[in-house]
Specification:
Structural class: alpha/beta
Helix content: 25-40%
Number of helices: 10
CATH topology of the largest domain: Alpha/beta knot
Radius of gyration: 20 Å
Number of strands: 11
């Protein structure tokens, strides 16, 4: 096991920024749960920086990564969290493509310009809960390897495949393979709607909703009705979770 150098600390810290993540094809995952999820998923880890106690406890899942034992003070220096949590992993960004066909029970979620990293991470975690295997993000959606997204996903990022693509073009390509739905405040009440799988579900920007071009490609617009008088709108991640839940209930096998 090696000791960490000043240049390694600088390098790992640089991965908090997207331009360096893109340049090196790497990202950072922090904390005991997320590190274990990553390492157990088969994801390629390049560097593991951990407290000696954590390294010893998890030696069976460390793989071929470079192992660096760090002190609590050094961990604080490389961590992007307010309170560092025992381990920081530098991992390779995976590469995969969308499948050409989908199972009859498949639900694909498409994110149209979701900007908030916390929302994106929560959507990934919720998608994992509802068995969604693929998320397709517009090119303007937040970076899935932003540390805030990785943290908010709570390890689900390593089970849900996240793709970035031109959304309208992708929807057109999938048009004959999936029923396409989009969320909108003026859409049909989801609780009274008939839904069909396999399907693509488009979730729009936190402030502006689904873009006109993407909405024009949806076969049906859906809304979650309000039952209380106070709230102006739903958080994008909450709305997405409600709609995914209803899909599993109403369009089940």
């Amino acid at each position: 096991m090696a000791l960490i150098s000043a240049s390694q600390i600088k390098f790992i810290r640089s991965l908090q920024q997207k331009k360096f993540r893109d340049q090196h094809g790497l990202f950072v995952a922090e904390g005991e749960k997320i590190a274990r999820e990553l390492l157990s998923s088969g994801q390629e880890a390049r560097i593991i920086c951990g407290l000696s106690s954590w390294i010893e406890e998890n030696r069976n899942i460390l793989g071929k990564a470079e192992i660096i034992t760090v002190s609590p003070r050094e961990l604080d220096r490389i961590s992007g969290l307010k309170t560092a949590n025992k381990v920081v992993v530098v991992a390779e960004k995976p590469s995969f493509g969308l499948p050409r066909s989908f199972a009859k029970d498949e639900l694909v979620v498409m994110l149209d310009d979701i900007r908030d990293p916390g929302n994106l991470g929560t959507i990934i975690r919720t998608a994992d809960w509802f068995g969604v295997r693929h998320l397709v993000c517009s090119l303007s959606t937040a970076d899935v390897y932003n540390p805030k997204v990785v943290q908010a996903s709570m390890g689900s990022l390593f089970r849900v495949k996240v793709h970035y693509a031109d959304l309208p073009g992708t929807i057109r390509d999938m048009g004959d393979k999936l029923s396409v739905y989009a969320t909108s405040a003026g859409g049909d009440n989801i609780y009274k709607s008939s839904l069909k799988l396999p399907a693509a579900l488009i979730i729009g920007n936190e402030a502006r909703g689904v873009s006109k071009e993407a909405a024009s490609l949806a076969g049906k617009m859906l809304s979650v009705p309000a039952f209380g008088p106070g709230a102006e709108s739903l958080n994008a991640a909450v709305s997405c979770g409600i709609v995914m839940s209803f899909f599993r209930m109403a369009a089940g096998e």
